[in-house]
């Protein structure tokens, strides 16, 4: 009954039933802790956890997972330390949950701390934990450590190979991803559907259209892997970025199942790059029919209108958003300095070091312009004058984060930034210039991939 109440998110009924239970076994306590955690009620989960006299391994893992899922990886790590202090044996599920949290939060220092615990424990050779570490390092932007771990692992299953292939793909190391896929096949490991998501992503990030089509066909004909929505999203993105928008639309129409939101989102993104209003309107219409409150759909369509200087179209989209009570997701970036994660929003007014950051940016802007940087005004999607557009671009969240990193991190240390939206053209160009004039490696992860900026160039080759 408890599980049934939680499935229906009936919190009060679950609490009332639990309170009336004459005998409460460990399983019922665990169900309550899990239910509270899944509904974001970590205070209630913690209270029950403290009250429990007898805790199973599932109890500890449920609590740790709850912290992770609610963005409290640090508290999850503290609980792991407490377990170890009490002599409770940590298992692969515990550490994998914690590493997943580190990946999602891009908390590299915490991830390294977990790694240190793993090295000292019998789980060092555990395949699940090893794979989670590879994924964590890849998603935190330290690909060389992921590769080192991969090479050292004595046993690897298809999940391990997938983690490394996907890591290379996300970092734009397409040749390495595809070479690893070939090596995997030579070793007789059968690829699964996730393998091909990584392979197609690698082709996508490098613009390898013909090779991507070839792998898409091989996947079905040679390996019997039926295409899933993720494969079609990769293919639409691959074709769209390469300017083959009509082919992308044809592929969507030939699909054997109903198109999904991500598919039209990818198509809309490609329309912005190639300024194709006709296909953009088709993609937006379909996306918003599936999810009328999808902010990204409205924003992407407005972006295409703005790129073509059709401000009346932008105005109509914004009016439609207001009528449908759709709220645009604000752009923000974050980075870890010491043990603190600093967050920056575009046009930030809240960060305590904002005055120093803006002074640093003004100084950087002068140096950048002397080095040949010209602001990409098309990246400012506002119908305002050029001077105001330049100001808006200068306060973009990743630029604020870069300036802060230059101020706070020791010379020579890479600056690692994470962003909730796709990097805009102006920030991409500016970051290339900053990496050269400051002689600093800058690593940026946006929603689609990693960009490694060094000596005035980017690992993506300006194709993203």
From TrEMBL:
Limits of the DYW domain: 372-464
PROSITE patterns the UniProt entry points to: PPR
GO molecular-function term, one example from the UniProt record: zinc ion binding
The keyword Repeat is annotated on this UniProt entry: yes
InterPro entries per UniProt: DYW_dom (IPR032867), E_motif (IPR046848), PPR_At4g14850-like_plant (IPR046960), PPR_rpt (IPR002885), TPR-like_helical_dom_sf (IPR011990)
One biological process term in Gene Ontology: RNA modification
Cross-referenced Pfam families: DYW_deaminase, E_motif, PPR, PPR_2
Record keywords, A-Z: Repeat
Per-repeat ranges for PPR: 25-59, 126-156, 157-191
Claim: Repeat is one of the keywords in the record: yes
Family per record: Belongs to the PPR family. PCMP-H subfamily.
Annotated protein name in UniProt: DYW domain-containing protein
UniProt organism field: Solanum verrucosum
